[in-house]
């Protein structure tokens, strides 16, 4: 996720501004041993790599020695670690983020088809909630949905991308998040813990995607010359505005679900659409409002 939202920070400056990135995962585990100095050689300054390695070891020690009970110490180490980690990512690597999300989805699908199927039932029953087949399937589909969201952001920034392309990407988002929601909502683990919060996250993203789909469908329809086209377009814009308002409520519901999290900053295509949808809905309803009134009569 850092590839999608981070900005490059020059090493050596005392004050660094790193764009905030909020990532929701089902559950954190102790990081595995990794030779960061070898992996990041030539990618980041030696002092930064050494600091990362030190913080990673600190996180591992605190988590293992206390079983994760030392929340404040663990939070402090994690926040500093993530700030450093996102700070060394180059600016505007959204295409890399899409590739990584597609790979993540593929790896999860492989785990479901080729690994979990070989586990004996008694072992499967002892797996943690976030390792259950339905949860992994949900995460796989969710990765596709969020990858498509970033692709839509790239299309919005591209002058070559047509409205039809943007509408198609938004509709694909709706399909992915709808499938993810259906997959997780039928799972037993969703009645408690982080799985319930993940369900609210997916529902929030589903509403955002649906608002985007209605908006771009409205723009495509509004290109027509017939009055009926403008009426249909206005209905789409008004529906998009209503869905956008619902998505904001869903975002708050997600944040308040335990464990409580802060509201993530608006970024990417939704930062653009959160301004455009209400503006276009108001303008078009003012322009073609008389057509709506005539049709209602």
UniProtKB/TrEMBL annotation:
Domain BRO1: 22-297
Top-rank lineage group of the source organism: Eukaryota
Coiled coil, from the record: none
InterPro entries on file: BRO1_dom, BRO1_sf, BROX
UniProt family annotation: Belongs to the BROX family.
Entry protein name: BRO1 domain-containing protein
Protein's organism: Brassica cretica
């Amino acid at each position: 996720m850092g590839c999608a939202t981070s900005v490059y920070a020059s090493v050596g400056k005392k004050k660094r501004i790193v764009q905030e990135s909020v990532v929701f995962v089902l559950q954190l585990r102790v990081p595995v041993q990794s030779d960061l100095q070898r992996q990041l050689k030539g990618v980041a300054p030696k002092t930064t790599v050494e600091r990362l390695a030190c913080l990673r070891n600190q996180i591992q020690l605190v988590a293992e020695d206390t079983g994760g009970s030392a929340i404040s110490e663990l939070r402090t180490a994690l926040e500093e670690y993530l700030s450093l980690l996102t700070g060394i990512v180059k600016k505007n690597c959204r295409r890399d983020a899409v590739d990584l999300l597609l790979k993540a989805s593929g790896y999860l699908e492989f785990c479901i088809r080729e690994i979990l199927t070989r586990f004996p039932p008694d072992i499967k029953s002892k797996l943690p909630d976030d390792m259950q087949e339905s949860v992994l399937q949900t995460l796989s589909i969710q990765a596709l949905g969020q990858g498509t969201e970033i692709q839509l952001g790239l299309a919005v920034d591209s002058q070559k991308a047509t409205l039809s392309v943007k509408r198609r990407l938004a509709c694909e988002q709706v399909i992915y998040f709808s499938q993810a929601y259906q997959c997780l909502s039928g799972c037993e683990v969703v009645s408690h813990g982080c799985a319930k919060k993940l369900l609210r996250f997916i529902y929030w993203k589903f509403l955002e995607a649906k608002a985007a789909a209605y908006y771009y469908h409205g723009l495509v329809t509004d290109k027509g010359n017939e009055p009926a086209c403008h009426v249909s377009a206005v209905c789409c814009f008004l529906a998009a505005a209503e869905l956008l308002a619902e998505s904001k409520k869903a975002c708050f519901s997600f944040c308040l679900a335990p464990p409580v999290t802060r509201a993530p900053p608006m970024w990417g295509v939704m930062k653009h659409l959160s301004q455009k949808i209400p503006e276009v809905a108001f303008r078009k309803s003012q322009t073609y409002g008389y057509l709506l009134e005539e049709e209602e009569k």
